[in-house]
Amino acid sequence: MDRRASGHVLRAASFGCVPVSDDPDTRAHLNDLCGAIGDRLGVAVHAHRAPSAGALANAFRAGRVHLAWTSPAAAAIDPRLSEAVPLVRSVRGGATRYHAVVVARRDGRLRAPGDVRDVRAAWVAPTSAGGHLFGRRALEAHGVDLATAFASEVFLGSQRAVVEAVRDGRADVGATFAVFQGGDPRRPLERAGFDVSGDELRVLCASEAIPSDVVLASPALLNTVRVEPVEALTHLHEDPNAAAALRQVLGADRFEPCAPDELERLRDLLGDDVVSAAG
Question: Which residues pair with 262 in a beta bridge?
């Protein structure tokens, strides 16, 4: 099916994301990544660093972002992204799935999911899969009563902000993403929203597998480019500079095509969580 829409043709496009980190080195890599994407698509692409998932969705709806790297849950349920076309998903360590982990300070009183009672929780965003929805599901799967688990809950906008809030003692628990060896949460961590080589944080529990984050395109972008965008993005890692940028900015090794029905399956899996998150 031809996904291009009739209408506006872009003179330049933007790639929007909430970077894993936001430091000068990451910003330079983000510019490199946008340059490589633009070379592949045949259109100038500039960077849009969003402070939060909600800000990214707002920018997409307003037409300021034409390619968005976002949580699969947001892609599935956020009405601000309803016109977006999923193109590719991230691959990390050969896997297209990751997990949410609920973390607490290692030197604190929380040592197991059952200890989570009347605590201060920090989440990324209402529609964040790894930073909210699946963290709650993981606790519930371990018998935690979510109605009484939290004395307070806040949304901080990014994985880094959640990890820092727990590390600094401003929150008792938080949820972030994690990639385990072989995709098995019983095995050691390879990558997460925190320094896996450090000893400041303790993983209380891990969720079921979550589909990787996705890159979405606007109809205007699809109307502009004259190459197949999925193919262009799946070959992006063949450029060494682009590969380094993917790892630094998105924590990804490469992209692969997004299964057409994957987001719909995720919507079904979340069930009632969709209503509360989208609302």
Answer: none
